[in-house]
Design brief:
The chain is 41% helix and 18% strand. It is of the alpha/beta class and 216 residues long. 39% of the residues are buried.
């Protein structure tokens, strides 16, 4: 078995155990494979192993790779510059890092020009870190209420990256904050909440226990 397939199988077992601890099903949680600096061959090996969703954070890196990939859902997970918005709309199936009405309006315009209704996640800076983009937790719902009026973007959920720590338990309160915010978002008219993206390699099991539906 290919090394990538072995690693993915191990991650799936850890996910299954975390889901069971939270009385959830493995099917309720999807893995997003972050593919920065990975070749098309490596990404295709992951897809063949069962990965159904990939994430790129650089448009210029995605462009030469995407045409060589097997069918897979593509998420943009980086900070989006306005001059890259058109390319991102054309290349990706979901944008995980929307944090302003201005950006949402720009994406809406480009999505409309290609006849697309683009799923987006609101990026939340849950700990108010200066080095990270994202809307503050108290502004996420007001922002969502503004964005739902747009015709060509669809709010599907939230994305959050808590502060890095070697102790996964230290970020559990942040995950709980984001999950409560997600539940509030899901109740808004015009929102089709389907994705709570939180948790990465060092803390994804805690994220699953706290309600994540997509982990990196």
């Amino acid at each position: 078995m290919h090394e990538i397939a072995l690693r993915f199988a191990h991650i799936q077992e850890r996910l299954r155990a975390a889901a069971l601890r939270a009385d959830r099903r493995l099917e309720d949680v999807q893995v997003l494979a972050a593919t920065k600096w990975r070749s098309a061959n490596q990404i295709n090996a992951a897809i063949q192993a069962g990965v159904r969703c990939i994430g790129e954070n650089r448009v210029q890196e995605a462009l030469p790779k995407f045409s060589a990939l097997l069918p897979v859902q593509k998420h943009f997970i980086g900070h989006l510059q306005s001059n890259k918005a058109k390319a991102v709309v054309e290349l990706f199936d979901c944008i995980q890092s929307v944090d302003s009405l201005k950006l949402a309006q720009l994406l809406d315009r480009h999505a409309g020009s290609v006849g697309k209704r683009l799923p987006i996640l609101l990026g939340v800076n849950v700990a108010g870190e200066a080095a990270k983009s994202g809307v503050s937790p108290d502004q996420a719902i007001p922002l969502a209420r503004q964005i739902v009026a747009l015709e060509h973007v669809q709010v599907r959920g939230l994305m959050a990256m808590p502060p890095y720590t070697e102790d996964p338990e230290a970020v559990r309160p942040h995950f709980r904050t984001v999950k409560a915010l997600y539940d509030e978002l899901a109740a808004l008219p015009g929102v089709e909440a389907k994705c709570l993206s939180m948790g990465t390699s060092q803390d994804f099991e805690v994220a699953v226990e706290e309600g994540a539906t997509l982990v990196r």
